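Retro notes (design track)

What went well: tokenization of the new backbones is finally stable.
What didn't: we kept losing track of which sequence belonged to which structure.
Fix going forward: every design gets posted as structure first, then sequence, in one message. First example under the new rule, 130 residues:
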């Protein structure tokens, strides 16, 4: 009898769950938040000052999403007045090396990407592309 199943790969397969996690952890604001929190814990308004272009609603949404995914933790301090501080978790810290690698890659690749974009735009503007 012939084997009809495809051979199992040793590499992980990209699934909807992977896509969802990566979308939530590597989105525009999450990268900025994780980068800011890698230095030290910050309060909400300190994060807003560290990322001045983010809206209050976007920051709140991103913080909740990162907390839900275990990347950061929300800590209530017992000071007067009570304060809330956000800290990166050990799981969140494991992303730092990956984020640094992506930043390094994008720094090296950016000139070539910009050149490709300009070439594409020139072709598009001249009507060479459908």
């Amino acid at each position: 009898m012939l084997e009809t199943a495809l051979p199992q790969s040793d590499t992980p397969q990209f699934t909807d769950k992977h896509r969802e996690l990566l979308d939530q952890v590597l989105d525009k604001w999450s990268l900025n938040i994780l980068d800011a929190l890698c230095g030290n814990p910050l309060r909400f308004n300190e994060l807003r000052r560290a990322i001045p272009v983010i809206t209050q609603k976007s920051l709140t949404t991103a913080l909740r999403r990162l907390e839900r995914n275990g990347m950061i933790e929300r800590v209530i301090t017992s000071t007067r007045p009570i304060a809330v501080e956000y800290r990166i978790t050990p799981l969140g810290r494991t992303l730092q090396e990956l984020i640094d690698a992506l930043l390094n890659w994008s720094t090296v690749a950016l000139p070539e990407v910009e050149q490709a974009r300009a070439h594409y735009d020139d072709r598009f503007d001249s009507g060479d592309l459908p």
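Added context from the reviewer: The radius of gyration is 21 Å.
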